[in-house]
Specification:
The complex is a heterodimer of chains A (345) and B (265). With 345 residues, chain A is an alpha/beta fold. Chain A contains 12 helices and 13 strands. The longest helix of chain A has 18 residues. Classes of the chains: A alpha/beta (345), B mainly alpha (265).
């Protein structure tokens, strides 16, 4: 198989206990518990080729983390199949676990009370990394993440950003071929976020590793991923390029117009006035992409325009729109996923 | 594999030192009840001359030996791992290509044991100086014969507690179940009183259960108070229980990991 990750109609249903609030409800639930089935992931299918970096998006509770946990062998699915590097993840074969990594938040692989350097040595033994390879990888990770000043301090004394760097290093020491990253930049300041992003890009370039990452920061996604997979309420909603998504979900452009001092005009004649109006003294007019040229020409000829610019709709807005629309993109997504797998893209 | 255990040892040893105060609490918990039993029973035996044939010295040597055996064969897997199953932090360990219980947890147990044992020695010496018991029934041969029983006893405790810990995959009430097991252990392991003082029914049940193999059997063995037949029978039982509990543990663990919901992590 040429693909790195292949997921077919994967589902996970949780059985969740529930009860009303209050004393009598608590007493009743002691004798008779009520459960509700929650479909965290519902028949999701996609394929990812080796070396791809794919953004895995969805609002909170969409099923992203559950999917990543299934793909890394932590969770058994309720239905469907998955194949990661030729392994069924939840068989949890040691060779499989040696080939992947999962980073979730800032707590995972490091012992809290001792320096990260000791945890690294433990990982060296667990993943059977020979000394030369270990030194080489650690030097590379040090170069990319500037670890030297922080790995000798107890992990509990590190800042959030420092800890994330150490977590990433611990997760990558064994040179995994597939990286599942769940919010790798959460809680980090902008500088640290940028550093982690450039590190991931460089790591992917150097090693050819496949990366599937979730993030609530669109900057992560736009900087790293050409392709995104979007799920909502456990179902696949989109699988394709970011630019395609903009074209399909929001085939519009924004024209920013600043009129000369004191000039007033009814801009709604030219298109929908978007929410970002008046930003930097401009009014933003949303127009269909194919009408941009004609509307711009009309604006320039009909109004006392001082300044004008044309922008794409921000990706955040596109994605929010996609989440809210609830269109079934699965039929569209499937053939694309299969095509990718065939070409080993 | 040796390298993995060595690294786990280095980490766990370093970590145990971070929790010195916690360790002393555990030790106090461990020491207090045998010392109380020792004081009470030796007082009773002194007053009556003996209790069912056991003299005051028999009680002192029994509980003082039990103190050491208890530290060597007991197991803290539940405290190391149950909360990790419940809060999902076990995920980090499940991602590693080694068994979390048979590597990290086992070594954590051993590091804890080494440190508590070291801390117990001075306490034990103080008790010895206070009580001046006669340990002449202990011989080099009985000590040598007891060493494998200690290992088997720890193995039995380890698998029993690991199985109990694995129940955390199903219920968050695992600490309650542990309390119930603790009561059984106190009743049947000889921790409370030497089993020969228990009602005959309890004695008969106790001899086939694994609990007495972790405390009573090694204690009585080192004190040379068992017949050769009892030694052979207990060793055979210990091997049987080690294998049986090992198999049960692997089955329960495997089923538990399948159910693991990795919440919150």
């Amino acid at each position: 198989m040429s693909g790195a990750v292949n997921v077919e109609v994967l589902s996970k249903t949780y059985r969740v206990p529930e009860r009303e609030a209050g004393f009598s409800a608590a007493a009743r639930s002691f004798f008779r518990r009520k459960y509700r089935d929650v479909d965290a992931v519902k028949e999701v299918s996609f394929a990812i080729g080796r070396g791809e970096i794919v953004g895995f998006l969805g609002p909170n509770g969409a099923g992203k983390t559950t999917t990543l946990k299934m793909l890394s062998g932590l969770l058994h699915p309720t239905g469907g199949r998955a194949d990661v590097l030729g392994f069924t993840p939840w068989d949890r074969k040691p060779e499989f676990l040696r080939s992947i990594t999962l980073v979730m938040g800032q707590r995972n692989r490091l012992s809290w009370d001792i320096p990260a350097a000791d945890s690294f040595l433990l990982n060296q033994a667990i993943y059977r990394i020979d000394d030369a390879q270990y030194k080489r990888t650690l030097a590379e990770l040090d170069e990319l993440l500037e670890l030297a000043p922080i790995i000798k301090k107890p992990v509990r004394n590190l800042s959030l950003g420092e800890r994330m760097k150490c977590e990433l290093a611990a997760a990558l020491l064994h040179g995994p071929q597939v990286l599942f990253l769940d919010e790798p930049t959460i809680g980090l300041d902008i500088t640290a976020q940028a550093r982690i992003r450039s590190f991931l890009r460089e790591y992917n370039r150097r090693t050819g590793a496949t990366i599937l990452l979730t993030s609530h920061y669109m900057a992560d996604v736009t900087a790293l991923c050409e392709r995104i997979i979007m799920i909502h309420h456990g179902q696949l909603k989109y699988d394709g390029g970011i630019t395609d998504l903009s074209r399909r979900i929001a085939p519009v452009k924004l024209i920013g117009v600043a009129l000369r001092d004191g000039a007033e005009a009814d801009l709604t004649r030219y298109g929908e006035l978007s929410a970002e109006e008046n930003e930097n003294g401009r009014r933003m007019i949303q127009v269909p992409a194919e009408d941009v040229a004609s509307v711009t020409a009309r604006l320039l000829s009909e109004l006392p325009v001082q300044d004008l610019n044309i922008e794409d709709v921000p990706i955040e807005a596109v994605i929010e729109k996609a989440f809210n629309e609830g269109e079934p993109a699965q039929a569209e997504a499937r053939p694309r996923a299969e095509a990718r797998q065939e070409t080993g893209a | 594999m040796i390298r993995i255990y060595r690294r786990f040892w280095q980490i766990n040893w370093a970590e145990q030192w971070q929790y010195r105060a916690n360790l002393l609490m555990y030790l106090a918990y461990w020491v207090v009840s045998p010392v109380v039993y020792l004081a009470v029973w030796s007082a009773v035996a002194n007053a009556q001359g003996n209790v069912q044939g056991l003299t005051a010295n028999d009680f002192v040597t029994y509980y003082m030996t039990l103190l050491i055996v208890d530290v060597l064969t007991s197991d803290i897997t539940l405290h190391i791992l149950a909360y990790k199953i419940q809060d999902g932090t076990l995920s980090g360990e499940l991602l590693r290509p080694v068994h979390p219980i048979l590597t990290g947890t086992l070594v954590n147990n051993l590091a804890f044991k080494a440190l508590t044992f070291a801390a117990l020695i001075p306490i034990w010496i103080v008790i010895y100086l206070l009580m001046r018991p006669d340990f002449s029934e202990v011989t080099a041969q009985s000590v040598l014969l007891t060493a494998p029983a200690i290992l088997l006893g720890f193995g039995i405790s380890f698998f029993m507690n690991s199985t109990l810990t694995s129940i955390a995959f199903w219920t968050t009430r695992v600490y309650g179940i542990n309390e119930f097991f603790y009561v059984l252990s106190v009743l049947f392991s000889g921790q409370f009183v030497p089993l020969t003082l228990m009602p005959p029914v309890i004695q008969q049940i106790a001899q086939f259960l694994p609990f007495q193999l972790t405390r009573y059997f090694p204690t009585m063995l080192v004190l040379n108070r068992l017949t050769p037949e009892q030694v052979v029978q207990n060793y055979a039982l210990a091997v049987f229980w080690l294998i049986a509990l090992g198999v049960i543990f692997f089955i329960v663990w495997r089923a538990g990991v399948k159910r693991f919901s990795a919440v919150g992590a």
